[in-house]
Design brief:
The chain is an alpha/beta fold. The protein has helices at 15-24, 38-45, 61-64, 85-90, 103-118, 121-129, 159-168, 185-191, 198-204, 224-229, 247-255, 275-278, 294-311; strands spanning 6-9, 26-29, 50-53, 72-75, 94-96, 151-155, 174-178, 193-195, 207-210, 235-238, 261-264, 283-285. The strands form two sheets. It has a seven-stranded parallel sheet with strand order 8-7-6-9-10-11-12, with helices on both faces. Strands 2-1-3-4-5 form a five-stranded parallel sheet. Bound molecules: 2-keto-D-gluconic acid. Residues 9-316 form the D-isomer specific 2-hydroxyacid dehydrogenase catalytic domain.
Length: 337
């Protein structure tokens, strides 16, 4: 029997999550994730009440133009720079994201990249797999840089930045951070983190982790000038967003040995990756998987589904999406619960 609302899911999701949706609404799911043009997105959204989208789906005023039906967009991610929230709000469309459920898993991955890049794990593994470990290895081969006991810098100190900072204690690290607003004293104490100016962060950090949201202000927050101020023994980790780092400038710094290594999970223009980065042995590269543990991706998908159902007036949270980005959008569309 057809239900009162229809939703579109822009990529395959966990079957149990789709089953939750299907209890309340008609669901159409794309068989694979793919980059869609604004025209394709407009067509997909034209005849549905809600949608679950991901970071590759850019939902802006152009995509929404002429759409009189859509009432809710649930983003699969805590970052939502793919959503033009003011345009959604103006159109009376509720927008949600997936905070909290991915904080610890994403912080773990920052450490995975930091350690892998600092200790050359991936290039050593490539070398071994290539059959090049035949004895005669020198005692001073494969020297990396230490992580323990060093100063960890964090740019962006929201939930994930704080979770990265807390892990620093286990490695006996001093933690310094820069954020637009300073954390309350109690949180700084708990994270054992000291606020510093950005220029000082760049100079003092032995290793630097980027965890800030992407917007016009954070575009190329780490560019050629910033890289010049970092230590040549430093590792740079980007688990935030492509575009926060000037990837071309980073590739030059890594090639010239002005930075020891980088661990990158996000890229400008991903899924394309700057070819200069792909050629570098001192760059550890992964395809935007910081939140990708089985438990966390399932929890993100479930939260997106819960948000969408609630926004459309279904399920235990009916009318109250757990992670609403634009409360001012509610009630603007006729017929909304
Ligand atoms: C992605 C993320 O959503 O939550 C975010 O902002 O960047 C990630 O969790 C996920 O990797 C899918 O692209």
């Amino acid at each position: 029997m057809s239900k009162s609302h229809s939703v579109w899911v822009s990529r395959p999701l966990f079957p149990e999550v789709l089953a939750t949706l299907a209890q309340y609404v008609d669901v159409s799911v794309e068989p694979k994730e793919s980059k869609r043009t604004p025209e394709q997105l407009r067509a997909k959204l034209a005849h549905v009440d809600g949608a679950i989208v991901g970071l590759g789906d850019r939902i802006d005023a152009g995509v929404l133009a002429g759409n009189r039906r859509l009432r809710a967009i649930a983003n699969l991610g805590v970052g939502y720079n793919n959503l033009d929230v003011p345009a959604l709000t103006a159109a009376g469309i509720v927008a949600t994201n997936t905070p909290d459920v991915l904080t610890q898993t994403t912080a773990d991955y920052a450490w995975a990249l930091l350690l892998a890049a600092a200790r050359r794990v991936c290039s050593a593994e490539r070398w071994l797999r290539a059959g090049r470990w035949r004895g005669g290895m020198r005692f001073d081969d494969w020297l990396g840089v230490d992580v323990h006991g060093k100063t960890l810098g964090i740019l962006g100190m929201g939930r994930i930045g704080q979770a990265v900072a807390r892990r620093g204690a286990g490695f006996d690290m001093k933690v310094i951070y820069h954020n637009r607003s300073r954390l309350p004293d109690a949180v700084e104490r708990e994270c054992r983190a000291e606020w510093v100016e950005k220029s000082e962060l760049l100079k003092r950090a032995d290793h630097l982790v980027l965890v800030l949201p992407y917007n016009a202000q954070s575009h190329h927050a780490i560019g050629a000038t910033e890289l010049e101020h970092m230590k040549p023994t430093a590792v740079l980790v980007n688990i935030a967003r492509g575009g926060i780092v000037d990837d071309a400038a980073l590739a030059v710094a890594l090639r010239e040995g002005r930075l020891a290594a980088a661990g990158l999970d996000v890229f400008e223009g991903e899924p394309s990756v700057n070819p200069a980065l792909r050629e570098l042995d001192n760059a550890v590269l992964s395809p935007h998987i910081a939140s990708a543990s089985a438990d966390t991706r399932r929890a993100m998908a479930q939260l997106a589904a819960d948000n969408l159902l609630a926004a459309l007036g279904h399920g235990p949270n009916a009318g109250h999406p757990p992670s609403l980005l634009n409360p001012e959008a509610r009630g603007r569309r006729t017929g909304e619960t």
